[in-house]
Amino acid sequence: MIAAIAPVGALLLSVALLLTGNGLQGTLLPVRASMESFSPLSIGVLGASYYIGFAIGVLGTPRLIGRVGHIRLFTAMVALASVAPLAHALFVAPPFWWLMRGMNGVCMASLYLIIESWLNERATTENRGAVFTIYTTVNYSVITLGQLLILADDPVKFPLYALASILVSVAAVPVALSRSPQPAQVVAARLPLSALFRVSPVGAAGCMTVGIANGAFWALGPAFVLQSGLHVSDVALFMSATVVGGAVSQWPFGRLSDRIDRRLMLMISCIAASASGVAIVLAGMYAPSLVIPAGFLFGVFSFPVYALSVAHANDMARGADFVAVAGGLLMVNGIASVIGPLLASGTMQVVGAAGLFAFTAVSHGVMALFTLYRMQRRAAPTPEEKTDFVPMPAHAPRLGDIDPRGEAPAETGGPPEDGPPSPDGPGPDEPPPEGEGRQAAA
Fold it and tell me: Where are stretches of biased composition, namely Basic and acidic residues (predicted)?
């Protein structure tokens, strides 16, 4: 394990610092917005602004890297990202916060792209799986730490905003001092969304559900806790418990899905996530002390949905470039992450705090029904046709590059020239006929 970490240690340290600062902001800003009496819709727009900026960053960063290079762009984006939390503290007004949150999304997407490109270059065939696992573990661990840092001071006071800025600023140091050569030019690779839904309706719909439901959770979860009559300390514990639940469940859920129809595991996860959302609503109304345990269960069942959906889509890819499929799924997730906070905040505006997790419960319930419908329509891939499950967070823009499932070369290096399967061929979510098996990574 040490041998796998050594070549990428500086990059992982930068990731840890960046995500700690960003995790702190992700909880701090909705809490402060609630304390400043922002409406639920304003808080929802705040969350959506981040994802809009993130999508812009993903699309625009490759061109900027081509113009100025990785190091200069990384330095510029760190500078801008460190400005955002300070600006939030200096001027409290919804439109200004929306603008700053969007700018932060652009910066974080660019920083992710640069660091993950470096990780991809430094990882080898022998250690790629270990690097990916460590990277995912770091993601969940430091986001939890960042959320807990809100307990260090009053969210209305300046120190927490300064701390978030410091963490992001210091993240530039390990990369700037690294002797690793700059990676190759970032090239965006993704399937058209229409082709993606043809390749795997369940995989694409699952990533959309995660964006809608979990995007709403990240944007409005802190506001829900405060509006339920709990305290700022409970916000930190609730958000952290949810992330921890998601971290501990990914591997067992994934390994079980390698042995049974992955869609069945996805449906069970969505049903349980829907039930957990209802449990959070009831706890918030009648037993606030149970909100945090219910949040843990919500994380256990809702967070693996993304990785399960990606794994199923990869099973059905039929020779399409895995990186292109992963890029398309992330784009679906990003678009849905903009929509989710807006819809959930509107629901909260009408029915109150309970509207958030009522919304996530309905979202997961609809996904469970859709998965059941698709299971009746198409047969499951055989175990030999499946790729291995890999735990992953849903917020990083180039996970496909370092995912060990992408090691096997694709037949064309991109989407098949003839496009998605024809109407006369195997349908969506249907494995190819015997003798035409997919290329699966070891």
Answer: 398-408
